Structures are given as structure tokens and as C-alpha cells.
């Protein structure tokens, strides 16, 4: 796995590089500005980019803009975005798009090495990884949905893990239940949210968005 890092905090940038190299991963470039990052993407054609949301010069959304441009230049590039805070609009849009090969983690998650590496590999393998703390904050900000009140606590746990990008096997392992139990919970979630298998939508993504849709306009 070839990785480019875009992070203006030198300590975090070099710490990430050391961590990933210690895991046998190939960090081909570390950069501190969006311009340097795009040059590195063009030059090295990485498999994954790890990008800070807020970068110079304004420290607003430069990292997100650069990540989008990098994916246009290199289709299929996996991007794991890091942020010190919950960037609500980006996190919600990530889920709305049902985006493949994209992840969003809070920087504090990097210190939990196993979780960070799991998210990195999930994104590199074509999945989506969203920080559970991000999901929790977005859910807390959402307006209530009456249909969601019908879900049991276990079904809500399953739905939250679905939102983090976990597949059924991973959800079963996290909740210490069988994969069959997870399938049963997901079927129940779809039924209670009136998501018909005949509908031409991704029911899994739509179920997650029922939690998050109201945050789009806040």
C-alpha cells in the first residue's frame, strides 16, 4: 500500500509516517500544503492519501478541496480524512454520497493504533470508515425521526456501526453476536423504517441517512 500524507502539523505528520512504516506500509511522501500534496499525488500515484481537513493558507477546507482534486486526477484513490473537530457538512455529505474508498476520523483516533489501522485498511479495500464519535455527535444534533423510535437499542447499535462503515461480520464481532443475529436486526431495521427491497435505493445507506438527514441544513 503506497501512501501520501498531507498534514501541516509536523509532529503529527512525521508521527504518522513512522507509525505506518513500522507497520510495513510504504509512505512515499509527506507534505504540509495542498499544493505539495497534489504534486506528490501526480508523482507517486499512491493507493491511499491521508489528508487533514484544515490546511494552509486559511485552515478552513483546503484539505477537503485538495482531496477532491486528487481523486479527480487519480480515480480510485482512497482518502482517509483527519480532523481535530467534527466537520458536520463534510461528514454528512460523505454518508449521503455512499462514498467508497473514503474515511473520516478524528485525529485523536490515531492514538488508538489498531482502530486507526483498521479504518485505513477498510478505506484502502474500497470501504467507508467514519469515526464513531463523529456518528455520535451527528446523531445528537439530528431532529428526531418518529420511525426511529421503533428501533430497539440493539438495532440502534447495529445501525450506528453500519454508519461507521462496518460490514455484517465486523458488526457481529463488535457486538459479540452471531452474523445471523446481525442479519435479523438489519432486516428489522429496514422493515421498521419502511425500506422496501423493491425500492431502487441502497437500503443500508438510506437507513443511516435517516439518522443524519436533518444535519444537512443545520
SSE blueprint and pairings:
Elements: E1 2-6, H1 10-22, E2 26-31, H2 34-44, E3 48-52, H3 62-73, E4 78-83, H4 88-96, E5 102-106, H5 113-124, E6 128-130, H6 132-141, H7 153-163, H8 168-175, H9 179-192, H10 203-212
Helix pairs in contact: 2-3, 7-9, 7-10, 8-9
How would you describe what is shown here?
Keywords: DNA-binding, Phosphoprotein, Transcription, Transcription regulation. This is LuxR family two component transcriptional regulator. With 218 residues, the protein is an alpha/beta fold. The chain folds into 2 domains: 135 residues, Rossmann fold (3-Layer(aba) Sandwich); 75 residues, Winged helix-like DNA-binding domain superfamily/Winged helix DNA-binding domain (Arc Repressor Mutant, subunit A). It has 10 helices and 6 strands. Helix 2 runs parallel beside helix 3, helix 7 crosses helix 9 and helix 8 crosses helix 9. The longest helix is centred in the last third of the chain and has 14 residues. It is elongated, with a radius of gyration of 18 Å. The C terminus is likely disordered.
Question: What are the key terms here?
Answer:
10 helices, 2 domains, alpha/beta, Arc Repressor Mutant, subunit A, six-stranded parallel sheet, 218 residues, single chain, Rossmann fold
Brief description of this entry?
This protein is of the alpha/beta class.
Q: Categorize the overall geometry.
A: elongated
Strand content of the residues, in percent?
Answer: 5-15%
- Helix share, percent: 40-55%
How many runs of DSSP E, i.e. beta strands?
6
Number of H/I helices: 10
In CATH, the homologous superfamily of the largest domain goes by the name Response regulator
Can you summarize the main beta sheet? 6 strands, parallel
- Label the CATH architecture of the largest domain: 3-Layer(aba) Sandwich
